[in-house]
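Notebook, p. 212. Picked up where the previous page left off. The plan for this session was modest: take the two constructs that came back from the sequencing core last week, fold each one, and keep the raw output in the notebook itself so nobody has to go hunting through shared drives later. Recording the first one now, exactly as returned: residue sequence, then the structure token string.
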Amino acid sequence: MSPAGCSHVNGYKVDNWKQNLRVIYQCFVWSGTAETRRRKAKSCICHMCGAHLNRLHSCLYCVFFGCFTKKHIHEHAKNKRHNLAIDLLYGGIYCFVCQDYIYDKDMEQIAKEEQRKAWKLQGIGEKYTTWEPTKRELELLRHNPKRRKITTNCTIGLRGLINLGNTCFMNCIVQALTHTPLLRDFFLSDRHKCEMQSNSCLVCEMSQLFQEFYSGHRSPHIPFRLLHLVWTHARHLAGYEQQDAHEFLIAALDVLHRHCKGDMIRDDNGKKANNPNHCNCIIDQIFTGGLQSDVTCQVCHGVSTTIDPFWDISLDLPGSSTPFWALSPGGDGSTVNGESHLSGSTTLTDCLRRFTRPEHLGSSAKIKCGGCHSYQESTKQLTMKKLPIVACFHLKRFEHSAKLRRKITTYVSFPLELDMTPFMASSKESRMNGQYQQSVDVLNNDNK
């Protein structure tokens, strides 16, 4: 899809195209009543293989349903030269000439209107309202020194994002990134010097996005160029299906990191840093930390240490088969990391304590010890060697078994200020040397 949109849509926009498109959405995509849903279930089958599944698409030019997975809709488009089809599950429109899903403002407006009508008939309610800050939120923002100035007509930096199909996973990450103070200051000060030849730089688009967010405009922003570039550089995220927000964050940081090569800090002579093993681009400066892994031999107690960079920490949650309340000290309402810890509740500190506790690897995972020169059982412990300026925590919300993939609905509480000192490699070394009490106060402020 071109950032400017699909040029083949104009061939469809003749005569009563709006009414025809509305009928397709009403009957085959957004079914508002039980009767229309039954009609859709009976009529929406592939005209070639008779299947209901396999990503069914409807031709926009004639009455034809075809499988996208088995390419039956592709055969129809080639034979009839009907270039556009609509995804009956997500409502996205596909162009067989561009070989991609497309965005068109007029079509998107019709899709949203028909979706609203269907939701209203189902009693779901309005979902595409424009967000406006409440009086209480405005008051809090005025007293927050990290916010930019607020006028009577607008709140600088607060702006809605239009959902382009099922892109809420992207929008929530974009909102988080645009309100990261250091990242905001970098992009608003025009620090990015692009060295790419084409208009495919994600950093340039993010820079433009920051300008849009902090321009003072109140109307929602449409991030179609950003979506296009994400599809271009992270092919596994392409399409109108719902994706995982955590996966999008890591993909976005990776592409931004690769495109930030021209923005590395320079030395006194204006030359870039020449160390291939160290990147000091803005993404690494803000989001990269160091994770230390210590593997200890159970025979000679020799320790093998490796340090790997990380952008996020994935934390286990207690599911139906993995409770870990016992990890909380006391269990009787003690306070940990500023959290009032009640028995039976889960906190972010609990998750971090579980993440950094020693793990016995067992007899099936023996390692070759450098001291014993033989395979021995060992324990492994993860700690933080270096903290990032902005720490990202990913909660593993799904548990898997042989027969089941279940979502974990456990609530997790977290403090407004998190002290990472107990989870640092330096704290572990201090405890081993009996110096923890003396060093903890010195480290505390740096690790919050």
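Okay, moving on. Second construct, recorded in the same format:
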Amino acid sequence: MSPLEWGLQLVLLVLLGAAIPFALRLERALREIRRDRGAMEGSAQGLAEAARMAEAAMVRLRASAELAGRQVAERTAAAEPLRDDLRYLVERAEALADRLEGLVRAGRPLAAEAPRPAEPAVQSQAERDLLRALSLGAARGSL
């Protein structure tokens, strides 16, 4: 072998020696990438499972909302006749209250003119208390 060949082989040997640390770093990086890829695939599977569960939950929620909507519509339909009946009763009660108020107003002057019956002789304290309570109640009712 000639000295030129020896020199080229020596340069090649030095370059190969310098490449070994780079190869070791590259091997470590590839090992980490493979490990991270496994974790990422596991995460992707977990994410896919979570997405499937969310979709199933949305379907159940939509079904529950539709059921609740139907129930509300049924109850509303059942309540409408009751509402109409109550409205009718309120209107009749208002008309009767107006009529009664007119009769009370018409009767007040007659009640003021009518002679009061003589109060019977009171026998006991309980009777006196009862008469006092009745007269106070009548006075408050006319206000």
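Notes on construct two before I forget. Residues 3-113 form the longest helix (111 residues).
Flagging for discussion at group meeting.
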